[in-house]
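REQUEST FORM: STRUCTURE PREDICTION
Request ID: SP-0412
Submitted by: Lab K.M.
Chain count: 1
Length (residues): 362
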Amino acid sequence: MSNPAPSVRKIIHVDMDAFFASVEQRDNPDLRGLPVAVGGAKARGVVAAASYEARRFGVKSAMPSVTAIRRCPDLIFVPPRFEVYRAVSGQIREIFADYTDLIEPLSLDEAYLDVTEDRHGLGSASAIAEAIRARIREQTGLTASAGVSYNKFIAKLASDQNKPDGICVIPPARGAAFVATLPIRRFHGVGPVTAAKMERLGIHTGADLATKSLDFLTAHFRSSAEYLYGAARGEDHRPVRPDRPRKSVGAERTFGEDLRDRDSLLAALARVADAAWERVERSSARGRTVTLKVRFADFTTRTRAISFPHDVAGRDAFLATGETLLDQFLPTALGIRLLGLTLSGIDHSDAEAQAAQPSLPL
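STATUS: Completed
RESULT:
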């Protein structure tokens, strides 16, 4: 007697469309159809989010405001209202919870859902995704895109295929072929530095990556090798984790003027440490690594980190470590425009493996 086929997970990745900017356009009808950026319009400002009208001009998140205005002179800046975004995110999370308890938020505007168990008997994962998108539109006035597939890696890729306000379904039989066509820079977990290295090695697409052996990938990408090897073949066995632990907790601040002298920088760092440690305490996190982020006036960004054999004892030790790291950059001829301080190496117990669920069509 043959063994039954293993259960296939049904994963949805829901991604809100230009979330912050869309909320602003929803709440202010005068902004609809216009290029909008959430963030600061001042010379030292940064774009936090851009509407699709602004994106057509090449405006994108994390871009300096001066660059965004150069690309789109008619760009309209609005200040961020994070309390509103959090409230809307909570509404969306409540919709998710009506369909599954297995929700892994990635940010305020995106999450993975495991809908292998068909709670409402809708018949397929794609039907569940459409129901969720319809309820988001009805209850919030916003649109969401969704990727539906058999693992997290492909579901996330798929959610970006038909944006905005679209859905893409990739069943197991199409997974490897779908991945093969994609540029390597679209792979989740492949940042600009890794992508550039891959391209130097002749890896430009998923198909190129699939030709490389595990030994080759290990030699060049070390701990990421197994993930990349599987991803190129449409494989990803990570479960949706409702209790997904935070890997780091921290804060950063951009200054109104470039800072150069040590006293001013130490005072600024103390304020950053206060904000970061408040978040550490609120999340009950414990960690062993302190990382300092420094962005200079020319936008060059550098980091330094120190790891300890024990948890960082408290705010004073956290700040003292940051000061030690900062001294590695001083004195500096370039002014410093941003400082960030982060606690990582956070200890979390492994979540239990999820039990197999009855299979549901995509």
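NOTES: The first strand starts at residue 11 and ends at 16.
Reviewed by: T.R.
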